[in-house]
Amino acid sequence: MEAALAVGISITVIMLSALLFDRLKLPNILGVLVAGMLMGPYSPLASVNLMGADFGNIIIAEPSLVGVFAVLGAALILFGIGLEFSVIKIAQLGPFTFVAAVIKIGIVYLAGYAALSLLGFPAQSSALVALALSFSSTPIILKLLEASGKIRRAEMPFIMSILVIEDLLAVFFLGLIAKPGGQFTEYEFALSLLRVVLTFIFAYVVLSKLINKFLTLVSYSDELLLLSTVSLVLVIGYISEGIGMSFSVGAFLAGSTIAGSSESKRIEEKIKPFNSLFSSFFFFSIGLLVSVSSILSNMPLLLLFIVIGIAVRFAASGVSAYFIGFPGRGACFCAAAFLPISELSLLLISQGMAGGLVPASFLGSFAFAIIVSSFISAWLVHRENEIYNSLQAISPQIIINNMRLLRSTALGMRRAVSETSKYYHVVEKLPSISHRPESLSTREQMVLTTKNAALLMVFSSACYVPIFLMQVPDWSFLSDFFVFIFAAFFVTSALFIVNAKSSADSLMKMMVRSSTGAKYAPVGHIFITIFFLALSVSYFWAYQLAPASLSVILVLPTLIFCLRSIASIIKSIASDGIRL
């Protein structure tokens, strides 16, 4: 098939699919992906002959025929994101928004990495795919919420803030994995990280000023401004390739440096039609590479992507939204809205595939997972009440209480920071998140944290046992799972210490509020001091038995809590046991 005919067929099919999905009130991106699957060399229509019409004659057997348009489309996607990016906007998000983003991305990443590693995939492939699974799609989410009438919800500022952070991280990692040929050593990774950081700094400090002056010179003509913008995207993209990063990262930097100029709005309006056309070619070209038969033959990988991309991402997004201060129903809405996997994740996977980091079979399964996650998100965003009621009915009470404790603690920390930090005098002017109080009483908090501490102590001990047994030759096979066992041991141990300290604090508050109990406050602090001192000795002894556990690090927080208890004893005695 000639290139001109392939392009003509592609444009026609893209238009028809976009029209169909627009009528269905679904994102056009999904329709373009499906159209690519139906028109590609692996299409199920390739052997169909209907009333004398042979569909095999219009199938695009060579995806490279539209490859140039796809590359330009990928660049314009990043350029459009760059135009929306503002360093000032990022700075105004506030530290707790970044913490919420870390919670969302971190939970999905850890689950994806652990699952892929257990399936036997290499560490670099597992890390890249797990990272790609953690990002959500800005255009798909906005389209879904707009079509469902949810675009003005109170949760939208939070959703947009998280999406901005994820887009920035995705672009950053695109720059890190641009090295072709596969394997990274630690030294090469450090150099790549340094190169990306220096490039971003140079772009925002130096290049942005040069570009602004250049655009001012050509701003008198719309045609010249448009041609200059496209030229800048291509030039900066190729320079980015030349210094070892991807063309797409250069396109993002071009957009983000132009975003600060006085002509950015004009440029955005003029280039938007071209952006829509060429970005459609990118998604269409991805669809051309999807083989339905290959996906079905590799069903465990597809199921893994769907489970991580839906169940784990839903839980992670809900927890992060609840942490930031939304009530349960609002957190369920955020969780449903965040489900669509990002189109930048496709760029990460395709670039990792080109660099030898990811097997070719991943791309088709990943594209299909994006389609599935988007359809499920479109169905769930209308059902936050049903989701909330169902989760409340099936969740154990201890989990519900822990979530309330997490939220009340986070809100308390935000209030404390806002009272002491000058930075929050600016941030508090932004739209606030309404919430209803769900804090626990002191007694309820003590009971809950005591139960948590007991359970976490059991889990931590259970994780330490295999670390100890790894030293025995007959149990050396456990070393294959060392990373996961060590992470579980360290996380459960840290949470155990925190819950034990919280339980002790709640107990002392209850004693001090009681007229009789206040007299015995020094005695209570003595027992708490002995407990944390014994805990310090236990962790040091555990390190001596199994140095690989690194439990000696946990000695520091327990000693700090021990010293704080000693200080409380002195205060209590000095005040005759009346107050702490």
What order do the helices and strands come in, and which of them pair?
Blueprint: H1 3-23, H2 28-39, E1 49-50, E2 53-54, H3 67-84, H4 87-91, H5 95-118, H6 123-133, H7 138-147, H8 156-176, H9 186-218, H10 222-242, H11 247-258, H12 264-288, H13 292-297, H14 299-324, H15 328-337, H16 343-354, H17 361-380, H18 384-394, H19 397-420, H20 423-427, H21 442-469, H22 482-513, H23 521-545, H24 555-574
Comma- or semicolon-separated keywords:
two-stranded antiparallel ribbon; single chain; 580 residues; 1% strand; 24 helices; elongated
Structure notes:
By secondary structure, the chain is mainly alpha-helical. The chain folds into four domains: 3-65; 67-386, Up-down Bundle (Na+/H+ antiporter like fold); 395-439; 450-574. It contains 24 helices and two strands. It has helices at 3-23, 28-39, 67-84, 87-91, 95-118, 123-133, 138-147, 156-176, 186-218, 222-242, 247-258, 264-288, 292-297, 299-324, 328-337, 343-354, 361-380, 384-394, 397-420, 423-427, 442-469, 482-513, 521-545, 555-574, and strands at residues 49-50, 53-54. It has a two-stranded antiparallel sheet. A hairpin with a 2-residue loop joins strand 1 (49-50) and strand 2 (53-54). The model is unreliable at 421-437 (pLDDT under 50).
Q: Summarize model confidence as the mean pLDDT.
A: 76
The CATH architecture term of the largest domain is Up-down Bundle
Q: What is the ordering of alpha helices and beta strands? A: HHEEHHHHHHHHHHHHHHHHHHHHHH
Count of β-strands: 2
Main sheet: strands, sense, barrel: 2 strands, antiparallel
Structural class computed from helices and strand pairing? mainly alpha
Number of helices: 24
Q: What shape does the CA trace take? A: elongated
Contiguous uncertain segments of 5+ residues = 421-437
